[in-house]
Design brief:
mainly alpha, binds zinc ion, 51% helix
């Protein structure tokens, strides 16, 4: 949380907003919990546990909308729909550039 959701004053990690006095401590805790769930989801995904990762991501999204959580949910949905992960077929090697003709040979041809 960068700003107080009530008055938009900059959040300075104090329990109450310095301008309007709104209690911000619980909101900050919710934000921390959302970030923790996102980290746990990434770990679950790395372990190959997509169902746990998806559940944690949905829980994280309920606490706080996070772009990365949305992207990862889309990624998991794509995998569940049959998308594969892997390297694309290697592109054909580019043609070797023509070697520059050494100046000495060029001069020799002129003879
Ligand atoms: Zn405020």
């Amino acid at each position: 949380m960068d700003r107080c959701p009530n008055c938009r004053a900059r959040y300075d990690c104090n329990p109450n907003c310095r301008r309007c006095g709104m209690a911000l401590e619980r909101l900050a805790e919710v934000e921390v919990a959302a970030e923790r769930k996102l980290r746990e989801a990434v770990a679950a995904l790395a372990d190959g546990n997509r169902s746990l990762a998806a559940r944690l991501l949905r829980e994280a999204q309920r606490l706080k909308s996070q772009p990365l959580a949305g992207e990862l949910l889309g990624f998991i949905r794509a995998l569940d729909d049959g998308a594969t992960i892997g390297r694309a077929a290697p592109a054909p090697a580019p043609a070797a550039p023509a070697a520059a003709e050494p100046a000495a040979e060029r001069r020799w041809r002129q003879w």
